[in-house]
Amino acid sequence: MNCTLFKINPIPSLIFDIQTLEILEVNGAAVDHYKYKRNEFLKLTLEDITAADVCYMSSIRKALKKKKGDTYLGIFAMQTKEGTILKMEINGHKVDFKDRQCFLMVCQEVKKNREKESTRSQNERRLSTLMQGSFDLVGVIDTKGFYTYMSPSSAAITGIAAEDFIGKDAFGYIHPDDIQHTLDSLKEVLTQERVVVAPYRAKNHNDEWCWVETVLKNMLDDPAINGIVVNSRDITESFKAKEHLIEISERLYLATTSAKMGIWDWDVINDNLTWDNKMYALYGLKEEDFTGAVSAWQHGLHPEDAARSTQELKDSLKGAREFNTEFRVIWPDRTVRYLEAHAVVTRDKEGRAVRMIGSNVDVTDRKKAEENILKANERFEKVTQATKDAIWDWDIANDTFYRSDAFKTFLGEDTSRLFSPTAFGGDHLYVHDREMIIQSIDKALADPLATKWINDYSVSDKHGKIHYLNDRGIIIRDKDGKALRMVGAMSNITGQKQSEQENKFKANLLKTVSEAAIATDLDGVVNYWNKAAETIFGWTAEEAIGKYVNQLTLSDVIKEQGEQIMAKLRRGETWFGEFEALRKDGSTVLVRVSNAPVYDDTNNLVGMVGISSDITQEAKNKKLLKQYTHQLERTNKKLKEIAWTQSHEVRAPLSRIMGIINLIELEGGAIDQLDFWLEQLKISTQEMDAIVRNIVDEAQLLDS
Amino acid sequence: MKVFLIDDDIIYRRIASKMWELIDSSVETIACENGAIGLLDLECERDSNQPISVLLDINMPVLNGWDFLRELEKKNFYQLPDLHIYLVSSSTDERDILKSREFPFIKAFIHKPLTKENIEMIINHVQDHPDKQS
Questions:
Q1: Do residues A267 and A355 lie in contact, with contact meaning Cβ atoms separated by under 8 Å?
Q2: A120-240: CATH architecture
Q3: What is the ipTM of this complex?
Q4: Residues A357-401: tens digit of each pLDDT
Q5: Of chain B's two ends, which shows fewer C-beta atoms within 10 Å, N or C?
Q6: For A272-298, what is the HEC assignment?
Q7: Which residues constitute the signal peptide according to the record (chain A) (predicted)?
Q8: What does CATH list as the number for B2-128?
Q9: B113, A647: Cβ pair inside 8 Å?
Q10: Is the domain A3-112 a CATH 3.30.450.20 member?
């Protein structure tokens, strides 16, 4: 190494150990430039004078390892003793110095370097001219991001002259939000040859943001370039188009997702059927279970629809028809779904179908709704046939009237449009209170809030027979409340009316009887309470109806028994008996009750009825009678006793008297000892008298 | 013929004796004031062949008419071959009459007072059927 040449070189130069980066020698220019004295320099390493981060240092190390001979290391920020940052372009070559492997580094300040531009070769100029016509922006930046070169095309592309880029920080043009990722790319390219920078926004001369796509190429090693080539292209238009495309595809995705739409693409020539993810869901299949041929589609079809749909597909391939159809598919789990399918056929020059792209949409819900409507319509028709009610539908706006056949059954023959106010009650029918009915319809129609119309009326047919009708209509209105339509049902309540009258008669009859008649529902809630019930229990019908019969008539003591009786009746059994019932005023009344369950026409148990009679007096009488009978029996017995005992006693003296008389007669009146016999007669008659008195006394005793 | 008048009523016994005396003076009347005495007196007639009629009252102290009859039955009527027993009572009680049927050997139930016809009937019984009781 020529030391003198080294020392006098006007370009700052220094020698450092490749391994340790220790500075081993400097020249005078370096001392001038970096403001360190030579002995100070020799205590430093390259790192001490490089205002670079580790990344830069490692790139230097890397370059040092690789290169042989003259080496361009790149542009580095170097730091003087005073802290001034200098941008230096570094060249050099490996040297052996003091038996150590070293690097002779020649540093030239970049600014000064540029001044030498005029010396560019003819070739370079040619390249520049070429690049002027390029749509790409080609520049060179140093490792810090400062432009060292810009292609002449910049003027046309960015509106900024190429010269104006030189020395400018490339990041100054970049959108703040994009600086981070572009900076990362710059760092990346220092260790790699080529980096594609994700699109970022850069400012043009009009201060507008443009989308830019850039490729960075590390050409730091190329002495001709000595930097990072930046190849940028304005992709604003294409980027916007792409974004638009993404938006469209997203929208399509949303549409297909929300509409349960699947997209398919059939390569007809090779029978290669491609489904999107939605399609698998529509057919209930897993992607791996799908063979990708049109037969896989056919396989999923409902047997009843398979032949037709396949034919439709063939027809549309032939061009005989469009492929717009519906079919059912059966999932592997036997679920049946309805799909709607549309497709377009792509043809080659000869008109042969080569491709078919289409969509499938799940329309099961819609189909089911349609089916339901059909069913509902059918049901409506059936109902009109099945019901005894006459169904009518009046289109008010057009004054047309639909009537179900039941009208004939009701009224014998065809009737006029009973509900059209204009024709109401025409032909052979005589409608009672016609005006009143028309008024009530008009009133209901005129009230925008009225949704129903109900009326009971009667008509006479031509035979003079009266039909009682219950008529109910639902009013359908537009949003302004105007009545458009009225749909209704008419019941013939003639039978009901008659039985009502009959019932009324029966009810009156019940009113007049002296027994209390009480009817309840199954819970024991009173729904009928006649006049006698009012008298017997003290509650008026008004008070009693709606209350529990047991609460009204039973004291707490026998409530439990009352519940048992209720339970019995609910089982359909009857109950007959007597009990002491409670009256409203708290007093009690002895009643004899006959309870029975009540059934409706269809033999359903609907309630209970009880007939009660007040037997308080009857019971008293009975008791008295019993008393009397008892007394009489006692008296009788006593009298018998008297009769028996006394008859003996009476007969004893009597027979004696009669005996004496017989004796006197036997002696023909001339009786011995007449005095004696007279005396005996006297004694006997007295004895008898005493006995008779005694009988009378005892009889008197009986009375008391 | 002997006639036993078994009755606690002394007046009746005197009337009856007197009537028997007036109607048939050949009849010997024996008055007994209760059944016990009647049995004793009748026992004295044991094995007698002459007809004996007993006019028996029902209600008597010591031994009443029913007990008398039972005793007599037990004693096999003292082997009297011509014994006629009549119940004579002032009672018209049906029950007494019914009860008398328990004793088929009673000839008749006579209600007091004893009449001339009753006595003649008894005499006839004895004369018409002298050997019936034997």
A1: yes
A2: 2-Layer Sandwich (3.30)
A3: 0.86
A4: 888 988 888 888 888 878 877 777 777 777 777 788 888 877 777
A5: C
A6: EEEECHHHHHHHCCCHHHCCCCHHHHH
A7: none
A8: 3.40.50.2300
A9: no
A10: yes
